[in-house]
Structure of SEC-C motif-containing protein:
Amino acid sequence: MDRMNIPTDHAPDPVNPNTDLSLGDDPWLRLCRELVKCDPPYPTETVRWAQTQREALTPHFLALLERVARDPAAASEDDANLFTWAYVYLAVWRDCRAWEPMLALLRQPTALLDELLGDMIHECYGRALASVCPGDVAPLRELAQDGSVSVWTRIAVLDAWRLRVQLADAAQAELEDDLLLLGEQCAAELRNVTEDDLEEIDTSAEYLLSDVIATAGKLQSQRLQPTVHGWFDEELVDPMTIGREDYDADMRDGGMAPEGSPANRHNAFVDDPVEETRWWGCWSEPSSAAPSSPMPWPVALSQVEDPAPTTYVRAEEKVGRNDPCPCGSGKKYKKCHGAG
């Protein structure tokens, strides 16, 4: 696998992006100034330009990943924003040195992960992990089995592991073993919970079981199919998160886009920084009627209400992938406005 041999021990820290510098800046200074803030319009030219600056930007990106992974609570807002660009570009460049700090971050508490990664933990982080994986998926297996980490961490690493099976050389049987184990653990927990109780307790088991089923479907695992059907028959699966018809469709086509249609980036390694970032809602122009508070960074364009350019801004907590959609449809956000 292609790896850069650039030392990162003494790489410069991010600079103040407001520093007045000429267009003759070194690449890191220009990137800090032009990409640290998330203001419309989408900076296509800068994002494409940065993709050509691998040698100059890599040591800075790696140093930033290592620093933030060591102490994410101490990361500044600018560091947090640049962190996303760092792992996206390193994933595009398949730089395996991003693997360790990216894994280390996933052991942080849910609230800290939500603050730093936002919706990207669902949209991109697992695929970025798969993109920089040096080959051994044992660390992914360890995190997937660790009940002490965030459920979103476990979902992200299952996504990364699946892609290593489908697009690289990881063994499907080992992943199927873990899916069966995790699924049965979740099912056992849910069998002792009434539907009313789900409103009052931690629903991590419900979320994780749904993702186990989705992963099994995308793998088109015949081995897991009878067990998955049993979970549906027992009504252990939230149909707002994944329905039997969704699972059956994945079993039929593996979750891949139909022939002749655009490729589904959710079933691919990270290859294009523009495709991975242009959906953020912060790139939309705010309307005069919109609240004065800024758009959370990054938030999906699917949270931007029609007619454009009115911007949806959450009033309370961040809308999670499996939370009720704020549009009022009654569906999970993932299956409604977050489906993109």
About this structure: Residues 172-191 form the longest helix (20 residues). Residues 1-23, 290-296, 299-318 have pLDDT under 50 and may be disordered.
